[in-house]
């Protein structure tokens, strides 16, 4: 959870109860005190600096079988370690999650419903755990998670910290490896999105695969690109942001395979519709998904306006496109981001202009370093050095701007004000399109619309 959501009970209660009325198995509600729980680790363990968080799909409680899908989170120490697909016997006390107050804004985060969207209803702290069996999960997911862990370990061998953790976050979404100081610094400067797997990251992966298999027939190279997107999405945990970006990229690949034009608005609409159909609760309780959609929508419709206005200016090293993309994303996303986080970065624009041009190269050489490092340290060495230099540059930019006094300022913003600001912005967007008869598909900057 990168962005904190606020307590939205008063405005989304009806939507919540009508669209997604899911409750835990009655058996879980009836237990009291210490319980014996049998379940399978259903997600890649979330390894943090202060311990592990295991998402467990419950099979039985105190010997009685659970019929409704229900998950719990087991909060454990750093050792021993556990793996996806292990069937565990967990002995502990089930605790209901509690909402908490954001220190920056004083607003209440609805943690209870945030977990419920993933059918997680209880937590158990520091339980006694016994491994009953292994390989009880999906073999494909188990294989993909093993690849991810091997890749992360390879990066850690080839590249010093904190660069290795930064690259792992960029490439495979392992944000938990980054220290709190680094994450806070990136957020403070406004470039935290470089460690968030997004459409930009997905496109880099797809394009790398396509180029690698470019000598194969077109149908094979596109098919392999699509397969790599699906497997990569599963390997990184299939977060809402990655799923949305993956669906849009798959539609793009399909359009190319059929020699049809790609309509980014339709692609986004299809992706959002399918995701809400699968889990309606992400619409109101997944702030990462909400912010990602706002940023993409803003980029799609605002970027062409800036592209038209700045058409006379040169575009060396695509810096103008980066400037337009950064400004456009902020149009609708910034008010909501301030509402979520309670502050705004004053140097987000220059920090993004300085870091985004090297981001694709950082990811590319990082991928080569981690992959070749599985085979030979010598083969990986030149790519590791390059990835280290580029990631060091990005960390340097972050530290420079974070060291400036008042690089971020607190701005508590109520939701009603966000709604008013976004409504005004939408009014001017509609007015501009009607007045200038501006279209989306005829402007080059929209090729970046799958980045956020």
Please give a structural write-up.
The protein is globular, with a radius of gyration of 23 Å. It is α+β, with helices and mostly antiparallel strands and 452 residues long. It contains 17 helices and 12 strands. The chain starts with 8 loop residues before the first helix and ends in a 16-residue tail after the last helix. α12 packs antiparallel against α13. The strands form 3 sheets. Strands 1, 2, 3, 4, 5, 6, 9 and 10 form an 8-stranded mixed sheet that branches. A two-stranded antiparallel ribbon has the order 7-8. A hairpin with a 2-residue loop joins β3 (51-61) and β4 (64-65).
What's the overall average pLDDT, rounded?
82
Uncertain stretches of 5 or more adjacent residues: 3-21, 441-452
Largest β sheet strand count, sense and barrel closure? 8 strands, mixed
Principal-axes geometry comes out as: globular
- Total strand count, please? 12
State the helix count.
17
Helix/strand-derived category reads alpha+beta
Q: How much of the residues is beta strand, in percent?
A: 5-15%
Radius of gyration: 23 Å
SSE order, one letter for each helix or strand: HHEEEEEEEEHEEHHHHHHHHHHEHHHEH
In helices, the fraction of residues equals: 40-55%
> What is the distance, rounded to the nearest whole angstrom, between the alpha carbons of the first and last residues?
17 Å
Brief account:
With 452 residues, the chain is an alpha+beta fold. Helix content is 55%, strand content 13%.
